[in-house]
Design a protein that fits this description.
Length: 338
Amino acid sequence: MQQIWIQKAGAPEVLRLQDAPDPIPRSGEVRIRVEAAGVNFADVLGRLGIYSDAPPLPYVPGYEVSGKVDLIGQGVPDFREGEAVFALTRFGGYSNVVCVPYKQVFKRLDWMNAQDAAALPLTYLTAYMMLIVMGSLRAGEKVLVHGAAGGVGLAVLDLCRIIGVETFGTASPEKHDYLLSHGLNHAIDYRNRDYERVVMDLTGGRGVHLVLDPLGGVHWPKNYRLLMPSGRLVHFGASSLAPGKRRSWWALLRGMIMLPFYTPLKLMNDNKAVIGVNLGRMWEQADMMRPWMKQIVAWYDEALFRPKIDRTFSFADAAAAHHYLQDRQNIGKVLLLP
Ligand SMILES: NC(=O)c1ccc[n+]([C@@H]2O[C@H](COP(=O)([O-])OP(=O)(O)OC[C@H]3O[C@@H](n4cnc5c(N)ncnc54)[C@H](OP(=O)(O)O)[C@@H]3O)[C@@H](O)[C@H]2O)c1
């Protein structure tokens, strides 16, 4: 098999393609011959050496794949060789062969292609967990999502359209036309304007019901302020701690200084809720996530959404895929093809 390793913390060029013997599935595992692997911002954080959940370096990153089952371990019910599937992989997804516990593997619909399938697991499950499971979003509410044109951002917009809510999204201005055509109600150019002012102006000073914050640092207090009473703030990332292609101790320190401290009394008196979501810590709860994925696949089946695949890169070009993401060029999902 071929795998892409993060050899050491650093610029995208630390990614290296290496050969290894094919793995043998253990009891309860399914082996998948990979057709597409998702690239996520967490892989960038891992490459920079600032991702606390990552295994020690060197390691093979990657959270999601699609492909065909080619070998089945003992005790695996309900899968057969040759079946088209997609899966959550807790690291190791940048590989053309992976072994995955069967509970993290999902069957593809006949009309679901490999690229769409590889784009579903991490982004749509994260969006589902934030909006529906923990954010208790209801039709008619107002939602602010940052990084609206990224993989998670577009998944959030898809689910918001299905639920029927008013969406506010920040993104670089050249992405606004696409976002508006994709159903975003209010596109905010955060690079040239203060998004807190813009959201407050657009909502008559009331704020929104739900804010999804993947930015962290200086954005933590701003996003809390944007909640109306009964509002919920979901922390799910800290991309502001990774402003460049090498680790920045200054950005990390600044982020730590800005860490908010929510006391129970403050939350009670403000009538606000603060929520944390980290899908990477849900792997042991695969049984809990399966019904969520079932609903996502049902919406796909009804053609209520299709993931937007922005660009694919070959395994040999993995470094270029990371540059592309960090240069903020993507609108939607970036995939690696073996
Ligand atoms: N907690 C979880 O379970 C979970 C799961 C998945 C993702 N996440 C988090 O969600 C965020 C989005 O992830 P993703 O995989 O969807 O990302 P993505 O597709 O790579 O989207 C990234 C977009 O975010 C914007 N951005 C903001 N700050 C950035 C920075 N410092 N460097 C590069 N781009 C930046 C850029 O858009 P503009 O040019 O429009 O600003 C960029 O195109 C990340 O913070 C990630 O860690 C969390």
